[in-house]
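Hey team,

Filing this mostly as a record. A colleague (T.K.) asked me to run one chain through the structure pipeline before their review meeting, and I want the input and output archived in the tracker in case anyone asks later how it was produced. No errors, nothing strange. Just documentation.

Input sequence:
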Amino acid sequence: MANTPVFKFKIGLITATIWENDGFYSVDLTRSYKTNEGEWRSTSSYSHNDLLNVAKCAERAENWIARKASS
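Output structure:
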């Protein structure tokens, strides 16, 4: 994978990060949360309340990649 993402966007606490490697794309979907000490961290575990934003991020990532692949 590349060292820097080619695109990144956020909906609520969910972030989609798109990576490009030799013309192929991959997507990391993560949820941000705060520890008891107040530090921000991320996880790939989602609660029921996160799932709509996970789905929206996945759809936006797919649309972004499809536009790039067709250009």
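Quick notes for T.K.: Residues 7-70 form a domain with the Nuclear Transport Factor 2; Chain: A, fold (CATH 3.10.450). The chain has one domain: 7-70.
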